[in-house]
Amino acid sequence: MTGLVEVLVGVVGRAHGIRGDAFIDVRTDEPGRRFQPGSGFRLASGGKLVLERIRWHRGRLVVSFRGYPDRTAVETLRGERLFVDVPADETPSEPEEYFDRQLIGLRALDAEGRRIGEVAEVLHLPAQDCLAVETSSGRRLVPFVSALVTRVDLAAGEVQFADVGGLLEESE
Fold this sequence. Notes:
This protein is mainly beta. The protein has helices at about 30-35, 70-75, 100-105, and strands at about 5-15, 20-25, 40-45, 50-55, 60-65, 80-85, 105-110, 115-125, 130-135, 140-145, 150-155, 160. It is elongated and about 60 Å long. GO terms for molecular function: ribosome binding. This is Ribosome maturation factor RimM.
C-alpha cells in the first residue's frame, strides 16, 4: 500500500450568481479527476466541503458546495484553499506528463550524468512550463521541452538535461 500526499487542487474565488455558485481558481492539471459531484475537500482553515454541482463558464470552473445554498453563504469561502489526499504513486492520465510534486526534488544531471543541482520548482508560464533548477551558481530556468530535458527517471529520482551551452551555467 502506498502512502497519501496532500495536494492543493483549487482556491475558492468570488461568488457567481445568487444560487451559491463560486468560481474556482484551479490549481490542478486534471480538474476532471479532482472536481466531481460528491468529491470532498479539506480547507486550509480546517473545515471540509463536499462538491454538489460543477460546470464550466467561459473557460472557468464554477461549482456549488453542499450546505452553501446562496451567494451570501458561499462568499464566506472566498480565498479558501481546497486540498485532497491522493496516492503518492498516482500518475497523470496522459503518458509523458508529470505532476509538479513528482518533479520537485529530482536530482538534476548534466548531459554526462554529473549532478549539477536539484529541481526546486515547476513554473507554469504562458509560453511553456519551466523547471527551476537550483545549481551551485544560482537558480536556472529550463524550458520543460524534450530538446532540453532529455530524460526524466522518477524511479531513480533524476532529470537529465541536454548539452546546451549556457543552459545551466553562467555565461562568460
